[in-house]
């Protein structure tokens, strides 16, 4: 048997209630729920595009995942840009060393130019326009 706390949007096993109460952490809004509710809302993955939410009746229900805010979209784009730049820097460094030391092959010189162009294009990306960003194509 399980209990559901709407305040915490969490399930608590009845068998552990005494332990929770011992530490004064048993939620005061817990309601006993049948195994079918526990199974649907805790034991399995949520339906695609849904998130478990507490309803006004104190029971869980599936709600649509809220759309990301503009600030969240920008933060995601910033992280993506940072990862792309880190990869570009990683690719450029050894080829630039080879060129500086006059050890580069013609292929390395060509690739170095492509990666540098890619890096410059990345630095020009305005993540404030997320999610409407067209990322440059990564060199092969």
Describe the protein in words.
There is one protein chain. The chain is α+β, with helices and mostly antiparallel strands and 140 residues long. The protein folds into 2 domains: 2-64, no CATH class; 70-129. The chain has 4 helices and 5 strands, in the order ββαβαββαα. The chain has a 3-stranded antiparallel sheet with strand order 2-1-3. The protein has a two-stranded antiparallel ribbon with strand order 4-5. A hairpin with a 5-residue loop joins strand 4 (50-54) and strand 5 (60-64). It starts with a strand and ends in a 17-residue tail after the last helix. The mean pLDDT is 96.
Descriptive key words:
15% strand, alpha+beta, 3-stranded antiparallel sheet, 2 domains, 140 residues, two-stranded antiparallel ribbon
Strand order of the largest sheet: 2-1-3
Low-confidence stretches: none
Task: Compute the number of strand runs.
Answer: 5
- Tally of alpha and pi helices: 4
Dominant shape:
elongated
N-to-C SSE string, H for helix and E for strand? EEHEHEEHH
Structural class, by secondary structure, is: alpha+beta
**How many individual domains?**
2
Distance between the termini: 56 Å
Indicate the radius of gyration in whole angstroms: 26 Å
Q: What fraction of the residues are assigned to beta strands by DSSP?
A: 15-25%
Largest sheet: 3 strands, antiparallel
Q: What is the mean predicted local confidence, pLDDT?
A: 96
Roughly how much helix do the residues carry, as a percent range?
A: 40-55%
């Amino acid at each position: 048997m399980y209990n559901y706390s709407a305040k915490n949007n969490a399930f608590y096993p009845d068998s552990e209630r005494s332990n929770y109460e011992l530490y004064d952490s048993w939620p005061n809004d817990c309601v006993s729920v049948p195994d079918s509710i526990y199974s649907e809302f805790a034991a399995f993955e949520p339906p695609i595009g849904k998130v478990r939410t507490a309803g006004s009746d104190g029971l869980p229900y599936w709600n649509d995942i809220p759309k990301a805010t503009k600030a969240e979209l920008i933060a995601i784009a910033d992280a993506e840009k940072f990862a792309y730049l880190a990869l570009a820097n990683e690719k450029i460094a050894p080829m630039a060393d080879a060129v500086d030391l006059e050890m580069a092959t013609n292929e390395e010189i060509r690739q170095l130019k492509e990666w540098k162009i890619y890096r410059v294009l990345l630095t020009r990306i305005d993540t404030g326009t997320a999610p409407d960003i067209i990322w440059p194509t990564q060199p092969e």
